């Protein structure tokens, strides 16, 4: 004799399930709750199922009269069955007989015990947290609901919608909602123009069912007080009921237990990408903070409801402030190089293509260059432009310029484009240093005629006889400029960014110490001349007794040859951009080798994907993989070592570099709560004082308003670069894209408006717009220029080749790959602006 199960619950499980741990946990939980073992065992593995998904499998099993039957008279009994549908994931079916419920046992405690026992065996799941409503809060929820003719769960749903809307940056979050009667709907929570939280509650209660859409902002489920809510650590568990399960794409998910007296318990699951182990706890805490504020002042505007307490905000601002953590500035970098030369005179300072240059010889060359510069009138505060390739000549010239009390600006050695002329015309350096330039070469000739400067050819200097190491230059002048780096500007004019000896020396000292650069290190010089990354490579090596190894120009863009070079040259430190690191990884995989000496791989200039970071760690098991973030205006701002699996999404940009405070602020300069996207602002004494020749205050350096209740926002320099970010709940920063039209591609920063201005200057172009085209992994693969040509019989005829030549004349080697598409007119949005989103969508299919 058998009897059918009295209660059956089915669940869809994704994300991984340890069946052995589940079996052991079930045996423990069932025994603890008085369920006797039954014939055939209380734990059943159904194996692979022919059904496409868990809901279809559950329907078939429920229709099977022989499924999950119990022996008659067996006493209180329970069973758990596990199956694997074709679509992936697993189906769990929990069933009990009549004797189980007749004895006063309930499914909810059994499910709780199963989840707890499973967690003990596989580890607690930080993605799922639980909270109970105290009597006071529950009463306030019910009171507000009664005032507005709503249900108590509507009040919680309103608070949840406000929270999710803030995190998704929308006032119309789309929520999947499941009610106790099994209905599944999609609800658009309209928070726009809501005068108060009370009004949101009213709107939620009256909101009609919306068509199911994606992407969902989150999910909200209401369960009865006796309804079992199954939690399995490390996995997503969704109850199957009429209409199916809540969609797997919903994140976060809040499940509320509601009885006759109202809501009593909330279970929040949050699995952000990239993973943040503190996110679920932090998000639930924000929900409690928002709900408490809303209940205390239901007529307050939604936008004023806090997600964090004042003390939490102050603590986050203090944690982001490392302005006091930087050591005292030591001697300028050039003085440190001379000190190293006195101690390690015969050690190779540079080694390229088997031609090492000892420190003693490098400083002797620098002394001769200093003398030559001074003879040309260069002195303290002068500007000197260096049009030199990476190598010993460039390093000696940099040292010679600094020893003369001047500051340097680097130029690409073969670039004679309009942008270089704009840099020289704006900076007006006293001297242009070249090597082997012909007397009548175009750029030196133009420089003499248009700027009135002098040209120093290093190849014209006599050979240097051996001699003593030059005397140490003066170690003062920390507030003098060390260099000026140029980047694009929104007006189309390159912007000069000066940095002082104090800032540059502080950063170089931190960089070398943090990444272990010193005697015996061999540092690759990969960055192009003129970029602060290249200057850091030079002086991080030369100020510590390491050897600088310039990457030969013929290898720089060839990943296969560069991979072999890294091994043959025994390189210990290599800095590049993620897109090139991906190509280098492919080369390493093709050869099956890895540079055995490489201790540090430093990645900057682009967002670093988690999958790429994990692949690099696997291919280079003995190498530190580090993600660096920051703008030229601050040298760099944050760093993060990828010392654990990163998974999907982008790698965090980490924590501030000593000497900097890195904040995420909203439009009113208020610190954003954890998880909420805002503008990244870098503050502190190591922010550039401003752009050269700006002609007035620049909004990028506008001071931050006073901190909240003395939160500690400094009144020193601030830089607002247009990047968006958010603070994770574990304190790490994430990069969330760019807030303007500035991009980085292959490590080169450009502004789309610069490209458009240059292209629009072509007489054949009537109007144009430039957008990015993303690769499959989300990195920028290239640019698409949409061109509306001039029409008419007398209009000049343009072509992609001519337009590309126009851009190359201005941007030179910095110009990335551009695809040109001619169209009749540019799309415009309701505000009259070019609809870049429409163009970007179109660019995804443009090749």
Q: How would you summarize what this structure contains?
A:
This protein is of the alpha/beta class and 847 residues long. The chain has 22 helices and 37 strands.
User: How far apart, in Å, are the first and last alpha carbons?
Assistant: 70 Å
Mean pLDDT, to the nearest integer, reads 86
Principal-axes geometry comes out as elongated
What structural category characterises the helix and strand content? alpha/beta
Read across the widest sheet, the strand sequence of neighbours is 7-13-12-10-8-9
Biggest β-sheet: count, sense, barrel? 6 strands, mixed
Low-confidence stretches: 466-470
Account of the 3D structure:
There is one protein chain. With 847 residues, this protein is of the alpha/beta class. 31% of the residues lie in helices and 24% in strands. The protein contains 22 helices and 37 strands. It has a 6-stranded mixed beta sheet with strand order 7-13-12-10-8-9, with helices on one face. Strands 3-5-6-2-11 form a 5-stranded mixed beta sheet, with helices on both faces. Helix 1 packs across helix 4. It starts with a strand and ends with a helix. The relative contact order is 0.07. About 1% of the residues have low confidence.
